[in-house]
Design brief:
The protein contains seven helices and no strands. By secondary structure, it is mainly α.
């Protein structure tokens, strides 16, 4: 695991602290619902980056730069978490779309054919969920909740209709045993 990946993890930890603050500020069922929807979508894309760095280690300069761009997008997401269901919804959606597009693009430069095949199928679904979150930022009330819920559900059911066999996991990378 590289230093840039650890930095990315720290940005995600900041997002989790923002979720904790959000729930502490609104300890209601609605507040918990917002936290679950935000966390579920963030966890999906964060997990996607764990898979990404397994398939496409950010060793080349352009890949590290793209990781920094995605970290910037993730930082924006984290910063607007307290207002993601209000005035910050559009900013959250734009940040999520940026993080998703960079993720898909980095996967498509992989030398692993199974990873490229998988992302050709999953990338469009991820983009659709990002667009749902962006659209939610322009709405309010029940429609906003519906779009957030649809995005979360689509993320979590997409492996059932986009799965591609043969996606290789480099366990040494995930355990930090491989060196760049």
């Amino acid at each position: 695991m590289s230093t840039i990946e650890l930095f990315f993890d720290l940005v995600f930890v900041f997002a989790v602290t923002q979720l904790t603050s959000l729930l502490a500020g609104d300890p209601t069922v609605a507040g918990l619902g917002r936290v679950v929807l935000i966390f579920g979508n963030l966890w999906w894309i964060y997990g996607g980056y764990a898979w990404l760095t397994n398939a496409v280690p950010p060793q080349a300069s352009r890949l590290r730069l793209l990781m920094l761009v995605s970290m910037g997008g993730f930082l924006v997401l984290a910063l607007v978490i307290p207002t993601a269901f209000a005035a910050g919804g559009v900013v959250f959606g734009v940040g999520y779309l940026l993080v998703t597009l960079v993720h898909t693009g980095m996967f498509l430069v992989s030398s692993q054919e199974s990873a490229v095949r998988a992302m050709r199928r999953l990338g469009s679904v991820n983009a659709l969920t990002a667009l749902l979150l962006l659209a939610a930022g322009f709405t309010d009330g029940v429609l906003r909740w519906t779009l957030w819920t649809a995005a979360l559900r689509l993320h979590w059911i997409s492996p059932y209709f986009t799965a591609v066999p043969g996606f290789r996991i480099r366990a040494g990378h995930l355990l930090g045993l491989e060196r760049p």
